[in-house]
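Supplementary Note 3. Input sequence used for the single-chain structure prediction.
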Amino acid sequence: MNTVYLLLGSNMGDSKELFHRAIKLLKLRLGVIKCKSSFYVSPPWGFQHENNFINQAVKLNTVLQPNEILKNCLEIEQKLGRERISSDDYQARTIDIDILLFNTETINFRDLIIPHQHLHNRRFALLPLEEIAPDIIHPKFDRTIRQLLYSCKDNSDVIKL
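The predicted structure, written as discrete structure tokens, is reproduced below.
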């Protein structure tokens, strides 16, 4: 059994309802949800938009491998109204599902990097993850999520709802 940590994000539509629907689909397609963080609100990261983001971290157990998890997450995003635009720029979205960690593995595929390559630099991802997995070791930096949060240079306002 594999343990995967995901981050849900949304700044368009009814984010909490979208998360509720995403969780149902994740259970159906990926595996057993072990725990979820609270909701956190934060300003957009890397671009300007009038809507703040809501984020939530999720821990689940799955028999799937990372590429299968990614495929399912992308299909769930699409089913919930996510329209991906071919661009390297960040953009507003109805739903985003990022794979933050997979077991204790480091994966570097063309379309998938685990641990998420920006996790250690983003308070909006670290805070919800720290709530549910403070002592998990980041396999690249050999530091706990709590340690990464306290040393994170991102000073964005991230507020627990």
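The mean pLDDT is 90. The chain has four helices and ten strands.
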